[in-house]
Amino acid sequence: MKQPVRIAQRAFCTVFVLISTACSFPASDGAEGSETVGITAADSQPPESTPPGVTLVDLMDEQNSSQPIYLATRLGSETGAPLYVPESDDLGTWSCTQQCAENYAPFLAPADAQAFGAWSLQEAEGQHRQWMYHGKPLFLAVEKPGAAGDDGANQDVPAPGDPIQPEEATVTTVSKDVQPSGNAAEKGDGLTLALFGLARHLPLPPTITIEDLPVAGGQTLVTRDRMTIYFYTGNTEVEQNACGAVPCYAHWEAVEAPMMAQAVGDFAPAQQENGVVQWTYAGMPLFTYRGDFAPGQANGANQSEHWRVALLTRNYRPANVVVAEVAGRGHFLTTTEGKPLYNRLPFRYRFGGRNSFEGYIHNLYEEGKQLGTDGCDAECLETWQPFAAPPGAQPAGYWEIFERPDGTQQWAYQGYALYTNTADDGPNDVTETGLYEPLIGANARYDLADGVANNGVGKAAGLNWHVAKP
To answer: Which chain regions cross the lipid bilayer (predicted)?
Structure first.
């Protein structure tokens, strides 16, 4: 890692010379990282966060009256069902016990699957291969035939210890989230919920961590104050003023390291001539942008081709979806033709309702799945059009596919079905965001399950339309 660090540091001198007349970056003797995501200055895009068929689900702690609190992100199957990994870190002493094999099946990869980044493959039963995440095999809970009710009593059930193949078991499609603080799956068996996140696996300096940055679309380096970090990817032939007419130092601030800092994995300190020690990652100097005023912002992303968000993995997004920003509305999802995407959210009886600052961000995944495509009836469909998933589309990341009653497929984001509005002509024309329709008991147009419809004072319920937030 030493040579790339020196090359990128010399590249940084072209910018830093606006502040100082010279740059000096002694080589670092730190150890190599135990695991890397393979990001270099030459990479145009970081790797995907998940392979096709693997989804991400945010776990929320529902409060009595306030907004839900984000806890963690778990891995899911193509339908969002929870995935599990061995609880033990020592896989050399771990094996799927008889009880484990009765309750869980290997999470199998398609025949054409390719390993990348944190995702690898191992041989499973038969001719199949099993997905592994950060070196741990993934499993899926199953419900064996004959285990639920008299209707299945006469069906063949695999003998204890026999491998359970997907064709011999019904995969649980409704996720049953458990709190990430628990250290075992609901059935035990030496497995625990598979949590997603590079910060759990990559060595990091104490002042830097990794978070999912929705506006950037993936796992991103941030400071301990949760401010977005950027890579400088220029080279020595780039003009000194690489970031525009105003000198760079007016906009960018080095992510400082302690004077006696040592390399941590792919992070290495680099000393400037003025004595400031700056962190680099895979040879690229790290900066924050003075135009970011709060965590979650990435206003420096488009300042110059030589500056980019320090994105380590990118979450899947359909090819015809982009993130738009409109003054007063923030960032939201639109089609490439400029049509805003909306989701419909069940009424929640909590302080601030859906009108609080994060009322449309921390949505409960299970409620979206419970509502499914039933949030828009025939009358509704005269104005709202389901956002169709094309033939052959595969769920990945926060994107799933719901099947509609007519057999067509509809995209869902973070568990909620997506729609467009026929009255919208572009991202500046958001006609129905925040629209609330009350639904009262038996007079409701929508047949919603208990816990969604019957929630709140007087058992009243309603549905909100809102632009889909990334």
So the answer is: none
